[in-house]
Amino acid sequence: MDWTHYRFRSLWPLPVPSTVVYDALERVEDYPRWWPQVRSVSRLNDTTGVLTIRSALPYDLTFIARETRRDPVAGVLEVAMTGDIEGWSRWTVTATGTGTLARYEQVVDVNKPLLRRLAVPGRLFFRVNHRLMMRAGRRGLLGHLQAV
Fold first, then answer.
1. In whole angstroms, what is the distance from residue 141 CA to residue 118 CA?
2. Pick from 13, 7, 15, 27: which is nearest to 70 by CA?
């Protein structure tokens, strides 16, 4: 088993129309306004940016995210990531009744030296850290969309 390889999946049920959720999720530069763990987003061009994230544990992850798919009809936003983490992530936004289900999937390898050294003893903590970040993201997005 590669202890530095992670697969994550989060489901965000939201009582908001899917087009509104998709529009918010495609504006990555706005994430720091509503997602506390997304510390900064710096656009390099129309499809690429540098993100820094930090959740409950005392470390930052900085990576370049390059858009690989943007499909509003299918509700898909996908990026390739390089830097402290390397891999991909994808949002899939679908209408469900009167609301939306935003599905987040991520497959990454950790490159940050400290996290690689702590891969075995820290794995559970890193997974919990990610879960806390995603929970806060859903809460932040919901508040942001209700305020708009």
1. 31
2. 27
Q: What is the DSSP string of 8-59?
A: EEEEEEESS-HHHHHHHHH-GGGHHHH-TTEEEEEESSSSEEEEEE--SSS-
Up-side HSE of residue 67: CA atoms within 13 Å toward CB? 16
The CATH class, in words, for 5-147 is alpha beta
**Cα distance from N-terminal residue to C-terminal residue, the chain:** 45
Which residue is associated with the tokens 């991909």? 88
Residue 49 one-letter amino acid: G
**Which pLDDT band holds residue 147 (cuts at 50, 70, 90)?**
confident
Give the whole-angstrom CA distance, residue 13 versus residue 3. 30
- Rounded to whole angstroms, how far apart are CA atoms 18 and 102? 8
pTM: 0.95
User: What are the tens digits of pLDDT across the range 7-58?
Assistant: 999 999 999 999 999 999 999 999 999 999 999 999 999 999 999 999 999 9
The chain-wide mean pLDDT, for the chain, equals: 97
Closest CA to 64 of 7, 108, 11, 5: 108
